[in-house]
Amino acid sequence: MDLNKVNSFIENKIEENLNLDYKASGSLQRNDAKTNEISKDVSAFANSDGGIIIYGIKEDQINRHLPESIDPINRNEISKEWLEQIIQSKIRPRINGIVIHSVSVDEQTNKVVYVIEIPKSNTAHQANDKKYYKRFNFNSEPMYDYEIRDILNRTKSPIIDLELEIQKYTYEVNQQNFVLPAFTIGSNGMYQKAEPAKKYKTNYTLRIFAKNNGRVLANYVNAYIEVPKKYLDEDEEEENGISNIFMENTIRDVVDSTYIPTMNGGYSSPKYGPSRYDPILPTRSFLLKSIKLYESFIGSTDILEWNVYSDNAEPRNGNICLSEIKIFEK
């Protein structure tokens, strides 16, 4: 996080949302009213879906919730260490994983912007006023009893999300059947052995992982992802040009790895046992499926949508633009 990234929020008019909040420099003051407000806002993010609060950006006075300009903070008066201490001392229980970035605006005058990254928590956090808050319509609102209970139940069920990557693999094409004349005339006028020009092919594979972001073992995982049929380099059932692909965390164990010669000179494949579910431990991932893609997906703005069902947990869903999926060279 640097000044360019902070300025990009202003230049691109990024509106506040569930995961983003702007605060002017006046929000950081050494009095109970302001420090209680800090505990309220930070705990609300942790109790909701996580996100970032940027202290040091003034909101537009006409178009509410849009950033107007940088409103820097004097680090000599309000230090990063002081802000961290307020967050840790006024919220119960403490929130693990908070990161505070001090972004320098002017080194000579010690002007900074503080960017706080707040993770989604697996428990409910209480602000200094003894209330529990959540993010709702750009604001931090008190939570109902059932909402607090829902958050506390996060530790009783697995939290499965899908993580996607695209693997790029380039290889040389076998040209054994490509016929060339045995010899050609070189630049020196002499005959020399002809060598075929090397040809390469690139394959793209969409790899879909189930990531357990909860604290409980996931025994059974079923998932569906919608992928436009035009990008699939394999047969999948489709409806209106969209393939709804089913996945689950099953594996088959090898029960006999003996390779037996066959009549055509090859070897038989190993024998596998019946399919079984492979549990996913907390913080671990499981490869659900690999799908071959046509190269035409590059630069696409199409959205992939997914749904996940796991044990006794509430169904989860999400989406990602094809162009936002990272591509890795194999």
TrEMBL record:
Report the domain of life of the source organism.
Answer: Bacteria
InterPro entries given in the database record? Schlafen_AlbA_2_dom, Schlafen_AlbA_2_dom_sf
Q: Which residues form the Schlafen AlbA-2 domain?
A: 16-143
Give one Pfam family: SLFN_AlbA_2
What's the protein here called? Schlafen AlbA-2 domain-containing protein
Q: Tell me what organism the protein belongs to.
A: Flavobacterium cheonanense
